[in-house]
Amino acid sequence: MLWLMSMRRTIAREVAAEGITLHSGTQVRMMLAPAAPGVGVVFRRSDLDGAEVLARYDAVSETNLGTVLAARVAKVGVVEHVMAAVAGAGIDDLLIILDGPEPPILDGDALSYLTLLDKAGVKDQTVARSAIKVLRRVDVAHKDARAALVPADSLSYDFEIVFPSAAIGRQSFSFAFSAEGFRRDVAPARTFGNLAELEVLKQMDRGHGASLENTLAIDGDKVINAALMRFPDEFVRHKILDAIGDMALAGAPLIARFEGVRSGHTLNNALLRALFADPANYRMVSLS
Question: Which domains does the chain have, with CATH numbers?
Answer without folding.
Answer: 7-129 (3.30.230.20), 131-286 (3.30.1700.10)
